[in-house]
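Hello,

Following up on my earlier ticket. Below are the two sequence lines again, exactly as submitted.
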Amino acid sequence: MIPRYQKVVFVVLLVVSIAMAVILVRLRERAHDRLLKGEDLAPTVAPAVAPEVQATLMVANDTDGTLLSEAHSLPLPKDAEARARALLEKLLEIYAGAGAMHAVPGTPRAVLQVFLLPEPGNAEGKGRTGGQAGGQLAVVNLAGAFADGHPAGILTESLTVESICGTLHANLPQVAEVRFLVDGQARATLAGHADLTRTYLTEEIADAATGLPAAP
Amino acid sequence: MIFFPQFTRVRACGVLLMAGLVGLVGLGLCSVGAQTPAIQSVPSGLTRPVGSRFVVVLDAAHGGDDGGGQMGGSVAEKTVTLGLSVRLRSLLNARGFSVVTTREGNVNLDSDARAQIANHATFGAGAGACVSLHASQAGTGVHIFVSSLAPTQQGRFLAWKTAQSAYVARSLKLAGTINSAFEHSSAGGDGGDANAGPIPATLGRASLPGVDSMTCPAVAIEVAPLRGADRKVTTEVTDAQYQTQVVEALAAAMLEWKTDSETESHTGARLP
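Thanks for your patience. The regenerated structure is below:
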């Protein structure tokens, strides 16, 4: 005959064991969810804790076809490639905003990557542009959804391309040349007009931003 | 006379081989011709004007599978550019110009074929102008673009993709003449608002695959809607009266450009 107190202890231990098992499973599920959530957020945005620095964005204006220099205080990562991407994301965010002077529909992660490479032919310290030593080529990889949704037209497409080049040059002066990819592939035009197969020279764009040479 | 039967056999084989090669080359040429329907479908584009000294090439952008952008409601850019090209061609023909169009219908035509037609048409002419017509919903008025290539001296050979670089200086002059014509235009038209003022025009530089290969003074004209002070559209690109005003201004510019070119040629100035 089992004593009564032993039966009570057994039941209590059994209930505690089951409760602990349930809690363990729930905790495991929560940890799994937290990990997945962390993966989604990690690389897409500049960390808000980064110190804010002064950045110059070359913002396009469709009305007169010009680029306007705007100073913004932004939290930017230290890494040059991540910084370039954060700057371009901010620029395209302005274009997607209501009442933008250069309206381009917004797309999440419109700039997939920016790669900074040594400028071709820079072995002797000077690139094709004959510019400063240590010049870099920036390869901007745009999202296909951004290019597909971009309004068609020579003016609007050229301004988007030029404002990207101008913004890179204004904040990373070592960037002398810019090339474009869309979803990692070469593409003939942005939306039917602006040539994406050529290499854009940032100094030429900076000069052009000051105005077209007067017709003789 | 000594007879060599072996030599005769070799010669017969050689003749047969040559005949076969000629046949193959002939077949190849036929197939290449069949693969370029765009050029074949534009008979007027390839007929070089004989004896004329001034040729205007009108290139209606897009066409065929390439619709370009969407204007206003559901009108494709290719339709608007073709309409502008047809209207401008009629006006210029009436004023005695030799006009070559890259397309007269809804056909596929790549940028190389457009430049090829323009270069063939202007090759024998003493002077001319190449005008690529576009339309857009962005911006306002008319945007005049010149190739963004850096100007270079004209050499014996020109690289295909940058051939326009030797003509950029003349293209900038042409853009100035067109800009001036728009400054003297009226957006209101004969039956419209007399106080409407001129059609606003913007000058710019752009890299355009077709224009960059043209060996003539070349500009791209992009027609955008007219907008009010609040940036709302007041006149759509598809508006017939607006299109008439645009082509009239362009025709006036071509007349001015032709006069300038003739004056330069009479005074002995070098033409491209």
